[in-house]
Design a protein that fits this description.
Distance between the termini: 27 Å
Number of helices: 4
Helix content: 40-55%
Radius of gyration: 14 Å
Shape: globular
CATH class: Alpha Beta
Number of domains: 1
């Protein structure tokens, strides 16, 4: 079953709500957080189509992206995983890829598990 594409306006609104909450030290509700994460992952997958790297933001979503050898079974050899707040910081440019990796906020395994140059997506 194909996933429904998230409308860009809805996605931008969710990211804006998350940004506003972050700026004030508040938090957004879970559905807004989930929408912001899913939409930014959708944008990443559209900008860097492929199946070489799996980007996971549990419990909200995962996408495969970046051209190259496609992964189809078992644990992918190239995985990026992080929490929702870190992902959104990366996706919006408030956290640099190298800074996230160095600070242990991003787990990236495999030769091709590098999103530097693809972020931010918003």
């Amino acid at each position: 079953m194909a996933r429904t594409r998230i409308d860009d306006g809805e996605g931008r609104a969710a990211v804006a709500a998350w940004n506003a909450a972050e700026a004030t030290g508040a938090s957004v509700d879970r559905p807004t957080l989930a929408l912001a994460v899913r939409w930014t992952l959708q944008v990443l997958a559209e900008r860097a189509p492929g199946g070489t790297v799996e980007v996971r933001v549990p419990p909200f979503a995962a996408v495969q992206c970046i051209e190259g050898p496609r992964h189809t079974r078992g644990t992918p050899p190239n995985v990026v995983e992080t929490d929702a707040a870190t992902w959104l910081a990366l996706a919006t440019g408030s956290l640099a890829w190298d800074e996230g990796r160095a600070g242990g906020r991003v787990s990236a395994s495999g030769q091709r598990a590098d999103l530097d140059g693809l972020l931010p997506v918003v």
